[in-house]
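Field guide to reading this record: the first block holds the primary sequence, the second block holds the structure written as C-alpha cells, and the final block holds curator observations. Each block starts with its own label. This record concerns Tricarballylate utilization protein TcuB, catalogued under organism Acinetobacter baumannii.

BLOCK 1 — SEQUENCE
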Amino acid sequence: KPDLLQATQNVLTLKYLDGGHGKGCNEQDDRYTQIRRVFHHLTFYGFMLCFAATGVATLYHYFLDLHAPYPIFSLPVILGTLGGIGLVVGPAGLLYLNLKRHPLHGDREQKPVDRGFIFLLILVSASGLVLMAFRNTPYMALLLIFHLATVMTFFITMPFGKFAHGFYRSASLLKFAIEGRISKKP
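BLOCK 2 — STRUCTURE
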C-alpha cells in the first residue's frame, strides 16, 4: 500500500489512539476505555463535515449563483448541521474527560490552553447551530457576526492550540509509513 494511503487510513481511523495496546486510554478510575477515541472521532469528523459544508456553500455561491441562507434540506445545511452536532458532542465529551482526569495526569501548565481550545470548538459549533435555528429571525445578523467572530478566532489561534497536533500527527504517521516500508527492503 502506498505510504500516503497508509498514513491517510491511519489518520482517518485514529489507528494509534488506543493506548498502545488496543484497550484505549486510562480514565479517572484507571480502567481502559475507548471513549476518548470516540470523542476524538466525533470532533474530527464533525470538523470535516463543517469544512465540507463550507466548501459546498462556496461552490453554490460562486459557481451556481445560489446564495445563503440555503434550504434546510440542502447539502450545505445537512453537512453543517451534522458536523456542528459532532463538534458539540465530541469536544464536550473531551472537556468532560479533561475535567474529571486526575490532576497529575498530563501537563498541568497545558490544561488551561487545552480547555480554552475545547471551549472555543464548542462555542464555534454551538453558535453555528444557534444561527441555523434562528436564521429566519431578526437576530440572524447578530448571530452571524458572533458565529463568524468565533470561527475567525478559531483559525487565528489554530497554530497555537491543540488543533495543530492533528497536522503534526498526520506528518508523523506519514513518516512512520515511509520508515516501515524502507525497513522492509532487503
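BLOCK 3 — OBSERVATIONS
The chain has six helices and two strands.
The longest helix spans residues 35-63.
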